[in-house]
Amino acid sequence: MTEQQLLALVNYDMAVWESYLPYLAAQIQSEVALGTFTGLNREQVLANITSKTLSGSQIEAVIATAIANYSRAVTYGIMQDEPDDTLYVYMGPLDSKTRQECLTYGSSEPLTLQEINDKAWGSSLLQGGGHNCRHKWQSIGTRVAPAKRMYNPSRAKELLK
Amino acid sequence: MDIKKLDKSAKKIGNMYGQGLEEIVDTLFKAKDKMDSDQFLEGLKDVDVTSILKNKLKNIETEYLKAHVDALESVQPPINKDD
Any chain A CB within 8 A of the CB of B78? Predict the structure, then answer.
């Protein structure tokens, strides 16, 4: 993955944020005007604005999702350059908030990119389990690589007395 | 992915946003209180709220960019590699 590609992804995320501001501005003007006509107080106007746009906690979720998607996109870019037999595991917190699909991916054996796609789990590579997901596929090397070091039955037989 | 760092950044941005929004509405209400309603409404349509938002929420852009850099730095190389 090139530096230019990494930067492009960041710029697109920033553009999404910037494009939200004119909409937010228009809603603020509209609700402040409406509040002036109808005699609403500051808190009521603020509540009306956040009911028609995004609240602080909603922004928090949007940002967390965008950053996690960015992380997954970078990892996916790296995956494209890795050998076909590279294995991936689905990593992230396991708690009461974890979605069923994330638990399904997470309980799987290590898989190659092809095997992930064959299971029709391809969307999880870039989006995880969806909105606000905290999981991603992570490379753990290849099937033969750890086996050579940690598991070598023929060598064990040779050494067996 | 460093979940703790990601959650912290997202929370910080959410707070900045909420606070910024409150301050902007506050400012507009203070202006409203200083003039009569018609005068305020006439002037309100000419206020460039988008620019005010951009300035007020500039720190969000900075934090958002930083969160991307943090996410990039926490992308791990393959582990268990036998080399």
Answer: yes
